[in-house]
Amino acid sequence: MKKLLVFGVGLIGGSLALALKAANKDWHVTGIGRTGDSLQEALALGIIDEAASDPVTALKDVDVVMIATPVAQIASILERIAPHLEENTIVTDAGSTKAEIVEQAHRILGEAASRFVPGHPIAGAEKSGPSAAQATLYQNKKVILTPCAHTDPAAIQAIHELWLSTGAIVRQMSPAEHDTVFAAVSHLPHLLAFALVDELAARPDADQFFEFAASGFRDFTRIAGSSPEMWRDISLANRTALLQELDHYQASLARLRQTLEQGNAASLQAIFERASHARNAWAERTQSAQGGN
Ligand SMILES: NC(=O)c1ccc[n+]([C@@H]2O[C@H](COP(=O)([O-])OP(=O)(O)OC[C@H]3O[C@@H](n4cnc5c(N)ncnc54)[C@H](O)[C@@H]3O)[C@@H](O)[C@H]2O)c1
Ligand SMILES: O=C(O)C(=O)C[C@]1(C(=O)O)C=C[C@@H](O)C=C1
What we know:
This protein is of the alpha/beta class.
């Protein structure tokens, strides 16, 4: 019997529990939450075998601790578990940002930081909570691990194998490289979607706009339905890289605005052709890699 302790049994932690159970019936999963209600829901859905409130007893004989809470909660959870971690317990996380979490883990866990394997599954949705969890969420999706030179290779291997068993494709990066990349391809797009919807919704005649918004608006803004707490925490934790991406985007919008103001059809066409070509080529590559994005 292998024991997994999940802090935060929502979309990401719950999907990991379901995927591991689907791959190997031997996993026993305990959940620790912020509210009793969501743990009861996770129990009822068969995501966890047990709900716990005291991390000290819950940590006994645990093989893997997965922290899948919003990123601003991770440091205080590490502080709660640090004094009670057993020699063989490996700690990992699923946070969407990595540099700040790695720094916190080193500071809080001390020696035991060698058994902290930072991770980030590149799979998700705009839905939250245990009811959104799915056993198949990670199939053919990338998971990024960001260990450092001090991370125990056996711990890295164990977390690598854990994700492989969910059907994921595992890659490694440095925390800084991770945060730079995901500021551009994940965090900025979420900010833009939130900003667009917020601006439209604040207009006195917003209802009319929403009444006629169709699939283009739906595609662009799906992610604005995501958890506000999660995205507040991601934005703040990756603030430096995100501000840089915002600057690039604002410069690009300013160029586009000028082109439009000038009525420069050739320039507009050139910008749209480059973007359309790059977007279609990316979509084809990710589709031909068995849907792995
Ligand atoms: N949603 C995505 O698309 C996605 C993808 C990859 C990674 N992530 C990351 O995974 C993590 C979880 O995201 P999610 O989408 O599963 O969110 P979620 O809201 O579905 O689940 C998070 C759960 O954590 C619980 N929680 C909050 N604070 C807690 C605490 N102090 N102790 C214990 N439980 C606590 C919440 O009650 C909730 O049940 C976040 O760090 C997020 O950045 C999310
Ligand atoms: O599909 C979505 O709704 C997502 O936002 C998933 C998404 C992404 O940006 O691609 C969001 C945050 C994560 O950390 C990883 C994946």
